[in-house]
Design goal:
With 480 residues, the protein is of the alpha/beta class. It has 2 domains: 278 residues, Metallo-dependent phosphatases (Purple Acid Phosphatase, chain A, domain 2, 4-Layer Sandwich), CATH 3.60.21.10; 187 residues, 5'-Nucleotidase, C-terminal domain (5'-nucleotidase,  domain 2, Alpha-Beta Complex), CATH 3.90.780.10. The protein contains 13 helices and 28 strands. A 6-stranded mixed sheet has the order 7-8-10-11-13-12, with helices on one face. Strands 5-4-1-14-15 form a 5-stranded mixed sheet, covered by helices on one side. Strand 2 and strand 3 form a beta hairpin. Helix 10 crosses helix 13.
């Protein structure tokens, strides 16, 4: 006898409570539109629950409690009432650990649903930090859920993210728990993961017993479920701009049929009036509203992070760092969050979308050889053919360099030529550079790492005071 189950997925919303700019892919290139927000997510969830009563489960892949000024100021707490209103059944995490894993564990109690992470342990032990699995019952089906948190947290995030915790890649844990959940009578086993789309596929190729993977982290806009072995996998965009819905027919403890809906949360989806009113009355949001909505400048170009190779958002940040330091070269990490900003007026809120943690602008010295090696390492960590060597994010952003590279080459042979201004970067020459966060320039690279006393948002405001932002040259990296 077959039974049906409906599943809603949200992933990588990055605290985008309100509608915001995001980039769509169009025949004419990237197009910035206003999309998303939690009131639209709630509208869709309510519709699914009405259409399929007693069979809807809602899952959140994480990158939820970080990404806005208000989220960071409240260490994620501003998000709690809106997450609870969605009726989420379980989540896992990545940037949500920015306030320490222990703080995230405390938020779990307030949320009222489990934060699952089978691959996170108390440091130096094999004692789990979070619950590894959950067994949920819906429409007569026993549904086993395995949570896998981002495995790169301990590798390339600031130490506060993994304070008191150890992280693994989750493969051994997924094997163990898939088998255990089956033994407990699960009709279906779902992997709720924040490893990233390529990593999840690699895991599914090694782990038996998983029927469905809800993937997060890499912001893939998967419009049709893909099958890996006997498992299906989806990922549903990012930034609360889209969401995924699955309707499954389960027969003899397997998925006999799968229907999928990828929904772009544009103006065709009405905003839930109750949540919208709640947002407008929220005392925390209102506390910072005037500060964030103040106009700080203008931009003549759309700002986005839609491409792995460049981001106009990042160029504004990088050019501001060069302006404030007077240095010719600047680096930032290839962050994927932030959405997009249509050309025109810029508010302080827009600048915090670009870099919500508002880090200090730093300077350092490095040789040309060190700089090229850093770029080579970054290409490997971004595009490694071995998925579990990928460290997340887009290519490292830079202003002041022109980098020719061959992406198909093996590690160590991708960078072809690097130019700083009119001159090729010389291996033995020392260069002074500006950067934000060790994700851009690790402390082990170069020397004389120093704080400037200026934070990123202020640096952007100072640049905007010189006039509207514009940039014609977007070629920091040229594939050859």
């Amino acid at each position: 006898m077959s039974k049906t189950l409906s599943i809603v997925q949200i992933n990588d919303t990055h605290a985008n409570l309100f509608p915001h700019g995001d980039a769509r892919y169009t025949p004419g290139g990237f197009q910035v539109e206003t999309l998303g927000g939690y009131p639209r997510i709630l509208t869709k969830i309510k519709a699914y629950r009405q259409q399929y009563p007693e069979e809807v489960l809602v899952f959140d892949n994480g990158d939820t409690l970080h990404g806005s000024y208000e989220a960071i100021k409240t260490k994620g707490r501003v998000m709690l009432p809106y997450l609870k209103a969605l009726g989420i059944d379980a989540m896992t995490f990545h940037w949500d650990a920015a306030y320490t894993p222990r703080h995230l564990k405390g938020l779990e109690t307030e949320l009222g649903y489990p934060i699952l992470a089978a691959n996170v342990y108390h440091a130096g032990t094999k004692k789990l930090f979070f619950k590894p699995t959950a067994m949920l019952e819906k429409n007569g089906l026993k549904v086993g859920i395995i949570g896998i948190a981002s495995n790169i947290i301990q590798k390339n995030m600031p130490p506060v993210f993994w304070e008191g915790a150890d992280f693994t890649d989750g493969i051994a844990e997924a094997k163990k728990h898939a088998l255990a959940l089956r033994k407990r009578g699960a009709d279906l086993v779902i992997l709720l993961s924040h490893l990233g789309y390529p990593q999840d596929i690699a895991l599914l190729e090694q782990v038996a017993g998983i029927d469905l993977c809800l993937s997060g982290h890499t912001h893939n806009r998967v419009r049709h479920p893909q099958k890996v072995g006997s498992a299906y996998i989806i990922q549903s965009g990012a930034l609360a701009s889209a969401m995924g819905f699955l309707r499954l027919r389960v027969e003899n403890k397997r998925i006999a049929d799968i229907q999928h809906e990828y929904t772009v949360l544009d103006t065709s989806v009405p905003q839930d009036r109750g949540m919208l009113a709640q947002l407008h009355k929220d005392p925390v949001l209102n506390q910072y509203k005037a500060f964030l909505d103040e106009t700080v400048g203008r931009t003549k170009i759309d700002l986005h992070r839609a491409s792995s190779f460049y981001g106009t958002m990042d160029y504004l940040l990088l050019d501001a760092m060069r302006h404030t330091t007077g240095l010719p070269i600047a680096f930032s990490n290839g962050w994927r969050y932030g959405g997009a900003i249509k050309k025109g007026r810029l508010t302080r809120r827009d600048l915090y979308h670009i870099v919500p943690m508002d880090p200090m602008v730093m300077t350092a010295e490095m040789t040309g050889q060190e700089m090229v090696q850093m770029l080579e390492d970054n290409l490997e960590s971004t595009f490694s053919p071995t998925p579990f060597k990928q460290m997340g994010g887009y290519i490292k952003r830079n202003s002041g360099l022109l980098i020719y590279f061959k992406l198909e080459n093996p590690y160590g042979q991708r960078i072809q030529r690097v130019f700083a201004g009119e001159d090729e970067v010389a291996p033995d020459k020392t260069y002074r550079v500006a950067y934000v966060t060790p994700q851009a320039v690790p402390q082990k690279v170069g020397r004389q790492h120093r704080e400037t006393g200026t934070h990123a948002v202020f640096a952007m405001e100072q640049l905007l005071k010189t006039g509207p932002y514009d940039r014609k040259n977007l070629e920091g990296y040229i594939p050859v």
